[in-house]
Amino acid sequence: MSIITLGGLSGGGSRDLGPAVAQALNADYVDRLILADVARHVGATVEALHQREERPPTRGERLSRLLQRILERSAVTGAGGDPYFGPGVAAFLTEEYEDIPQATITRGHELEDDTYIEAIQKVVTEMAEGGNVVFVGRGAYVILRDMPNVLRVGIEARLEDRIATIMARERLEHDDAARVIDERDRARDYYFKKFFNIDDSDDPSLFHFVINTSDVSRDYAVDLIVAACKAQQDGTLEPTKVGTVA
């Protein structure tokens, strides 16, 4: 059962590696954009499942069905407005870090925060319990850090390489891409501090290992992650315990 979390700064390469790792392991791939698409189509997709029972559901349909079940049980779906686009878990899951409100803390706002983080933890945990999934973002490597069968991989890159990635992906000029990265980095720091009480979201101790995509090719990085996943499953990933000297 493969469960992998990829975490790192915007433009570091997580979104490029995630789908490739998932394909190599025949696993589901989950990131912010995938969840957004599922949230928009979940009702119709789940209804369609009942009409197509003669064939196995696709990965997207399985993800839709799981998210629908979580949404139906979650208290946030009754918070008013459309449960997929209002103040519910799907809207929270699918926002960029910088889009998450950073309001002044009040008692009511704290209660709303509690609801949000409870919902995101529920979604990520239940998806992980289903197995065979690759997560990118949403703090999954923190949420799942106590699950022994989860491989936590950090992804980083030099700033200029991150800027080049954002320029190509989002068709931005250099200065605009640099500004986007700065805003996302600061928002990501706020997110991890606010919801997980973590000052350094890139602390190497949060991961099994960290890959620098400025110095390691995409294909080699994928092979390394897949090999580590298999080593974790057969018990050879963990270091040998050194005996205590009396």
Major sheet size, sense and barrel closure: 5 strands, parallel
What is the level-2 CATH architecture name? Answer: 3-Layer(aba) Sandwich
What's the order of the H and E elements?
A: EHEHHHHEHEHHEH
Any idea what the CATH superfamily is called? Answer: P-loop containing nucleotide triphosphate hydrolases
What would you report as the Rg, rounded to the nearest angstrom?
A: 19 Å
Give the terminus-to-terminus CA distance.
39 Å
Binned, the helix content reads 40-55%
Layout of secondary structure:
Elements lengths: L2 E6 L5 H12 L2 E3 L1 H20 L7 H15 L15 H5 L13 H24 L2 E4 L3 H4 L7 E6 L2 H12 L3 H23 L12 E4 L5 H17 L12
Parallel strand pairs: 1-3, 1-4, 2-3, 4-5
Describe this structure in words.
With 246 residues, the chain is of the alpha/beta class. Helices cover 54% and strands 9% of the residues. The protein has helices spanning 14-25, 32-51, 59-73, 89-93, 107-130, 140-143, 159-170, 174-196, 218-234, and strands spanning 3-8, 28-30, 133-136, 151-156, 209-212. Strands 2-3-1-4-5 form a five-stranded parallel sheet, sandwiched between helices. α1 packs across α9 (218-234). The longest helix has 24 residues, at 107-130. The model is unreliable at 42-56, 74-92 and 103-111 (pLDDT under 50).
Which short descriptors sum up this protein?
five-stranded parallel β-sheet, alpha/beta, Rossmann fold, about 250 residues
